[in-house]
Amino acid sequence: MIARLADGVPRKGLWLLAALLLLLTLFPLFASGYLLAIGFLILYFAYVGQAWNVMMGFAGQLSLGHSLYVGLGAYAAAALYVHFGVSPWIGLGAAIGISMLAGAAIGFLAFRFGVAGVYFAILTIAFAEFARIGFDHFAWVRGSSGLFLPVANYTENDLWNLRGSPVMFYYLMLAMTAGAFVLCHALLRSRMGYYWLAIRESPEAAAALGVNVFRYKMYAVVISAAMTSLSGVVFAFYYNNLFPEQIFHISRSIELILGPIIGGIGTLVGPIVGAFLLTGLAEGLRELMLQLGIDVPGVKQVFYGLCLLLVIMFLPDGVWPPLARKLGLHR
User: What is this structure's pTM?
Assistant: First the structure.
């Protein structure tokens, strides 16, 4: 796997990746509890951004309802743990299975009947909204009252049941983000990855060359859904509470995809750069305003909107591509 990662990557890029990984590994040694929570959020959005990037950046299928897979993964693992004491790692199988089925249903309806572009995006929003309304009235998971996970303590780390300190969750999220990066690199350089890029640029041309467009679009949706559901499991056991209005809402989906858009859609490093810029700067701005005694509701959303506007106007390909060219890492 390391050899596959090094394949086609400039030596300078490998050194920068190694330095970043080392810095992130040492981060909990000198970070406060607040900074550790910010670090977790950055890694969380970097991971989900990579999962969404498989579907949109690689295969060109715009999903605006990706919170569906986060919520399904979170509720599946959390409900099994609360009701039956099932380890989240075993519940992860159910979470991934349910999310893959949901993704396959959306993909089949869209791709079999020619739903594409903005209409496909609307279809993904509709499924996320159906889930939000359905779980809001689903008594087995406490409906709108919220599903709460029992917390014994935060001092002893129990990785099997995902009960423990924020440091444990930080390192888990770091491992997931690094794993997702390696996986996306392997997917992008595989035959399927090249098929995805062909489909993204021109489905008609790809079909004329013999690519099974329907099959490979389905692969992209299902893989992205499976990856995203894992983030939902970690989300549930980190925050220990789930509300349908919170986890399935369209604002959650928009928040998940801003990182890749700001960093650079279709790139491997873009979702990570976007997560660092958006989450780091937004939380820094919020903390600064609190220190100054200024309380402006919705300031984070305004900041996100300004970042998106500036990127669309001046960096339409995202922050990472021009930065990579300046660093001599672009190929």
Answer: 0.94
